[in-house]
Request: fold
Amino acid sequence: MSTLPDRWQIKPLGEIVKLKHGKSLSKADVSEIGEFPVYGANGIIGRTSKHLHDKPTVVIGRVGASGQIHLTAGPAWFSDNSIYVSEILGDISLDFLYYLLRFANLLQFATKTSQPLLTQSTIRKQAVALPPLESQKRIVALLKRTEMLREKREQANQLTSKIIQSVFVKMFGNPATNPKRWPSHELLELAELRGGIQLSKERRPKSFPRPYLTIRNVYAGRLDLSDVRNIEVPDEQLERWILKPGDLLVLEGGDRDDVGRTAMFRGELKNCVHQNHVFRVRVNLNLLVPEYLMHYLNSDHIKSQFFMLAKATTGINSINMTQLKSVGVLCPPIAIQKDFARFVEHVGLLNSRQIQSATEINQLFHSLMHKAFRGELAMTAAS
Reply:
């Protein structure tokens, strides 16, 4: 780490926080109307009538979505797939700790298995730079302002998505009622589906870094490519995993609205692969247009189906490949699907400046994070 400003200290996280494992809940204890949120490795997975911790705190993904960081607003329960901060030691604000742990990128310290695992002992060992409280407040204020800009851009993207969904319903009807009586087929009959890379099995000697899309890159209707990591994949195995333009990426799980969230890969990154918690759907182009299927899977009706399927089998917000394959898909004539795809492309062109702005703000945020936690912002201000 480069030279830090005066009064900054290097400390292991174990000297800054106390950590505890979350605890499992029975399926009967989780509902949609409970008073307190239940956090899993990747965010809120339900609600319950009891809490494990009675104050706002930071939650760290332990299993699967290892290293994911969430800030709670008040009392909450934490599943056994998560670790939470039970106590802060010393002069550090909760908001600063939240950003500090995000910057620490704890995922890199997780075990490289099919279900990545992050342990308390590993987290405690990680050394971080800790500024005095007044510097913490300035850093948090700056990062919060930048995140507010990110949120506004995201809201604009969501508005565009609503316009497209409105046109979708006008052209094809509500998928819940199918008023135009389109034929329906299981997704398995219309597309090839595959899981993503399990790092423990696919990493090999003499392999090469490839762009690697994870759950944090996949949003409903779009990919966020501002923070793409690389993993090593041998050339001889690349063909079976590599994404092609038009491939859809479907999230296995997460928060309620995240289950089945779908985006399309348009060929933005060469030799790009994807995480095992993200399913790949490659459609038969004689039967489906990718843009149509993406918006169909992101419709409220199908999202509700995904959520009910997840709850019925696991009690948590996660679907499996079998469930995805069995989803019924309405199949309008291919010519109408292509008309819809042209409309989506037209909206996309009009929206390109907005997307570029969002990308630039995301890049700015990550740059500020990097400078802030290395003390470079403080040194610049002092000079």
